Amino acid sequence: YPSDNIRNFSIIAHVDHGKSTLADRLLELTGTIRKGHGQPQYLDKLQVERERGITVKAQTATMFHRHKFLGSDTDFLLNLIDTPGHVDFSYEVSRSLAACQGALLVVDAAQGVQAQTVANFYLAFESNLAIIPVINKIDQPTADPDRVKAQLKSMFDLDPSDALLTSAKTGQGLEQVLPAVIERIPPPPGKSTSPLRMLLLDSYYDEYKGVICHVAVVDGALHKGDKISSAATGQSYEVSDVGILHPELVPTGILLTGQVGFMVSGMRSTKEARVGDTLHHARTVIQPLPGFKPAKHMVFSGLYPADGSDFEALNHAIERLTCNDASVSVTKESSTALGLGFRCGFLGLLHMDVFHQRLEQEHGAHVISTVPTVPYIFEYSDGSKVEVQNPAALPSNPKNRLTACWEPTVIATIIIPSEYVGSVITLCAERRGEQLEYSFIDSQRAFMKYRMPLREIVVDFYNELKSITSGYASFDYEDSEYQSSDLVKLDILLNGQPVDAMATIVHKSKAPRVGRELVEKLKKFIDRQMFEIIIQAAIGTKVIARETLSAMRKNVLAKCYGGDITRKKKLLEKQKEGKKRMKRVGSVDIPQEAFHELLKVS
Ligand code: GDP
Ligand code: MG
Known about the structure:
Distance between the termini: 56 Å
InterPro entries: EF-4, EFG_III/V, EFG_V-like, EFTu-like_2, G_TR_CS, LepA_C_sf, LepA_CTD, LepA_IV
Binding site for GTP: 13-20, 82-86, 136-139
Bound molecules: guanosine-5'-diphosphate, magnesium ion
Main location: mitochondrion
Number of helices: 15
Number of strands: 33
Subcellular location: Mitochondrion inner membrane
Largest sheet: 8 strands, antiparallel
């Protein structure tokens, strides 16, 4: 396939507008996968993706399609790159777009343009991609394609007559999609006569084959047996296998200019496969391709084994999982309350949740996570500045040593039906947001931009936004600058002892309410024990909230004695089971739920 007969494109959309379903239909249409293979959202391979109905990892598939082009039947090779829709994974989106020359911008015919449609449109637009608007789900009774066309025109200046109308469900209009891809998206621009340059798009570890890289060959060609080097590390490798993703790995022995496919080259770990790196033939000198923006960690949280002895097992599980999710940062840390563990940086809260779920589901690990925090910057009186990723690292009486603090902010885009404007403005004000823009997309939908402290959105903002708008709000954000802020460290004390893993950093104005809520939550989730437990929230030495959990009375225990032996055994077993998910802090047993509940207080 000469590169004139290759098209590399991506599908971008707001979550749930039908990208994955459309991708399935295109794969079926081209015979790449069988119809009714019984596995919808074929490219969503991970269990979490199927359960949550979201795409986490961008996947690539190569399809073949014959089309009448410039008067004669021509065979085309089409590389489709599916992208995640959720805000946390926009890093994956920009990665996928780097290998494309065009994108299908899918918009739900009933819901119209949503926040991630806007964000994804701009990502594609800034990468100079040809954009084909696809108005999907036209089979729905509430579909209103004309309204969506008007939105596309007013917001993105896209010509309404360019829009394709489809239903990925009924198949209506799908026959126009691939012809539009071939005719409207330019072929990849690389030179087949230039030395090899290829972009490393993604990598993962396969037990049998080792590290498998997804690559886009920009110039030249890659053959099995070639010696290649990494522009980033200078390391050299011998290519032992190359091929296309069809969508399974199909060895072809060669990848030509403009093709996207896989490569195996004896890398020992995915750490050597730096996403965004340029690979070239050993001993040729090339200009590296522009890389990607590195993943930016927005949320940090401590991960500890739910059972102290499992540290090695957790270590192993995290190592294995980060092989397939290089966007997580991991450093070892220890806590007086929880023992040995890890501090992990995530792209957002959903990313953090997904990482936990994958640790448990795919690697059988049991973890306790600490209250998530964003990276703050603190300045000390000696003029030094530090980035704080763990509240416990701040001294408890900070005011005498700290001279200033800054917190990261984001620019949030919110799109809502007009009737919810009032409640959304109230919510954003509570979250210390500053309104930057407020306009209307059409007669029914409002568009707002806010600057907000990142901290205020990572903790449950999206859920709350959805609940006050009956699920109609859409939301996206991009990171912005740091702003100076009045922050304090809030400690939680059990019987007078600070629990380092429960410390948080909060805005001074919110400390009393957050402190109150935290101690109330803890009182609810900690079981009564043989002694009284005093739960306190404090700033420095000043206690701002307090609850007392009275001791268990003896006759409660007495009930367990005597009676049916099997029942007693069951109780004991249950207790043992429960213990696994307990953490003993000082002399107090804290169930895992208590830690989880703390995550939700903001
Ligand atoms: P993604 O999040 O953009 O990948 O969206 P999915 O492809 O997972 O689709 C979200 C939901 O919309 C799924 O339940 C699909 O079955 C459904 N869906 C997708 N396309 C259509 C369509 O054309 N019509 C209707 N009625 N439903 C669709
Ligand atoms: Mg999807």
